[in-house]
Amino acid sequence: MTKSDDVQLDGVRDRLLRQRSELIVRAGRVEGDLRHSSDPLVADAPDQAAQIQNDDVLRKIDDAAAAEIAAIDLALERLKHGRYGICSVCHVPIDPQRLLAVPYAVTCVPCSQARNSPR
Ligand SMILES: [Zn+2]
Asked: What protein residues have CB closer than 5 angstroms to ion ligand 1?
């Protein structure tokens, strides 16, 4: 890889770290909502069902945020070892366009598609 090909790794690290802290803030907020710290579940309230349904939505957001944080951690780890932007499966450089869209991607497009497609 020549110098001009280097993705601005410092910029990527900043972006990942910022994204990570935003997710943690968001996840923390969701967890606060789940505990009903500001909005206790009222027994016999007609909107209790709606409130529970809302919890399901919140839990899904929480899972998505947790998965994203884990992916960012993995990307940061790879960045530290100089393997950022290299596919973790086939070891070819990941398309820079993909890294711009998904900075925490650790697999190239064909590998991620192969992994996500059911067998
Ligand atoms: Zn690959």
From this structure: 87, 89-90, 108, 111
pTM of the model: 0.68
Q: Is residue 24 part of a domain?
A: yes
Q: Which pair of tokens denotes residue 70?
A: 């884990």
Q: How far is the CA of 96 from the centre of ligand 1 (A)?
A: 13
pLDDT tens for each residue of 53-107: 777 877 777 888 888 999 999 999 999 999 999 999 999 999 999 998 999 999 9
Number of domains observed in the structure of the chain: 1
Angle at which helix 9-34 crosses helix 48-80, to 10 degrees, equals 160
- pLDDT tens-digit profile of 10-25? 889 999 999 999 998 8
Does 98 map to a domain?
no
Q: Which two tokens stand for residue 16?
A: 């990942």
Flag whether 107 is in a domain: no
